[in-house]
Amino acid sequence: MRKKIAAANWKMNLTYAQANELLDNLFSKKYSLSENQQVVIAVPAPYLHLAKEKTQGKNQVFISAQNIYTKKSGAYTGEISVEMLQSMGIEHTIIGHSERRDYFNESNEFLKEKVDICLENHITPIFCCGEALEVREQNKQNQFVAKQIEESLFHLSSTDIQKVVIAYEPIWAIGTGKTATSEQAQEIQQFIRQLIANKYDAATADAVSILYGGSVKANNAKELFSQPDIDGGLVGGASLNAEEFAAIINALA
Ligand SMILES: O=C(CO)COP(=O)(O)O
């Protein structure tokens, strides 16, 4: 079922003590979540256990990994498996963030394998897509994003694609303070939903949560999240401040 989600991506930030403090601060803030709303916090792997412990008893608040490997276990030094997440009660992971695509050469084909191992093991993939500035300048963003989605997701059944959360994150808006306007984000996210409807059907497309990411802040979240095809946000920098992220959660309402 389509959910509204405020997702935090801490990336490779914070010490253990700072992570501890941020979680305590965040959970001391007032925020309310209605039945179809969720908070997902993607923390660095060494803090998964700490974060998971702190969410005990908190409904609709989930801790997420930022990445996983394509294999269940074995000789893959330094990697994290879905089996490990499962064994800790972690139910989400980000997949294919543009930073991983760029710095670690993750291809659409490789990400397809990651999506598959997540779904086989009941982990929700938060699948990131989005174009670089050169692509947007040539007005080729729709084709670019369509290829990412088609090559990594369109082998899935209708039931399975509904379990994927898609995050549209234009690379030119990440960490730059340059947000896509709500019209720009709505336009491409409507295109993504239509792409899913064309491949599957309208009911399938309607059930998929599509988040926007790229310089989401407390002061622009409400406008972005009120667009019909923006089901929440994947938030980097602003999620490192409890006050700011609590305001973003409240903007889901
Ligand atoms: O990459 C992002 C979330 O995954 C967005 O980062 P910023 O919110 O810092 O622009």
UniProtKB/TrEMBL annotation:
<dbReference type="InterPro" id="IPR013785">
    <property type="entry name" value="Aldolase_TIM"/>
</dbReference>
<dbReference type="GO" id="GO:0006096">
    <property type="term" value="P:glycolytic process"/>
</dbReference>
<feature type="binding site">
    <location>
        <position position="215"/>
    </location>
    <ligand>
        <name>substrate</name>
    </ligand>
</feature>
<comment type="pathway">
    <text>Carbohydrate degradation; glycolysis; D-glyceraldehyde 3-phosphate from glycerone phosphate: step 1/1.</text>
</comment>
<dbReference type="GO" id="GO:0006094">
    <property type="term" value="P:gluconeogenesis"/>
</dbReference>
<comment type="subunit">
    <text>Homodimer.</text>
</comment>
<keyword id="KW-0312">Gluconeogenesis</keyword>
<feature type="active site" description="Electrophile">
    <location>
        <position position="97"/>
    </location>
</feature>
<dbReference type="Pfam" id="PF00121">
    <property type="entry name" value="TIM"/>
</dbReference>
<dbReference type="InterPro" id="IPR000652">
    <property type="entry name" value="Triosephosphate_isomerase"/>
</dbReference>
<dbReference type="GO" id="GO:0046166">
    <property type="term" value="P:glyceraldehyde-3-phosphate biosynthetic process"/>
</dbReference>
<dbReference type="GO" id="GO:0005829">
    <property type="term" value="C:cytosol"/>
</dbReference>
<feature type="binding site">
    <location>
        <begin position="9"/>
        <end position="11"/>
    </location>
    <ligand>
        <name>substrate</name>
    </ligand>
</feature>
<dbReference type="GO" id="GO:0019563">
    <property type="term" value="P:glycerol catabolic process"/>
</dbReference>
<feature type="binding site">
    <location>
        <begin position="236"/>
        <end position="237"/>
    </location>
    <ligand>
        <name>substrate</name>
    </ligand>
</feature>
<comment type="function">
    <text>Involved in the gluconeogenesis. Catalyzes stereospecifically the conversion of dihydroxyacetone phosphate (DHAP) to D-glyceraldehyde-3-phosphate (G3P).</text>
</comment>
<comment type="similarity">
    <text>Belongs to the triosephosphate isomerase family.</text>
</comment>
<dbReference type="InterPro" id="IPR020861">
    <property type="entry name" value="Triosephosphate_isomerase_AS"/>
</dbReference>
<dbReference type="InterPro" id="IPR035990">
    <property type="entry name" value="TIM_sf"/>
</dbReference>
<keyword id="KW-0413">Isomerase</keyword>
<keyword id="KW-0324">Glycolysis</keyword>
<protein>
    <recommendedName>
        <fullName>Triosephosphate isomerase</fullName>
        <ecNumber>5.3.1.1</ecNumber>
    </recommendedName>
</protein>
<feature type="binding site">
    <location>
        <position position="175"/>
    </location>
    <ligand>
        <name>substrate</name>
    </ligand>
</feature>
<feature type="active site" description="Proton acceptor">
    <location>
        <position position="169"/>
    </location>
</feature>
<comment type="pathway">
    <text>Carbohydrate biosynthesis; gluconeogenesis.</text>
</comment>
<keyword id="KW-0963">Cytoplasm</keyword>
<dbReference type="InterPro" id="IPR022896">
    <property type="entry name" value="TrioseP_Isoase_bac/euk"/>
</dbReference>
<dbReference type="GO" id="GO:0004807">
    <property type="term" value="F:triose-phosphate isomerase activity"/>
</dbReference>
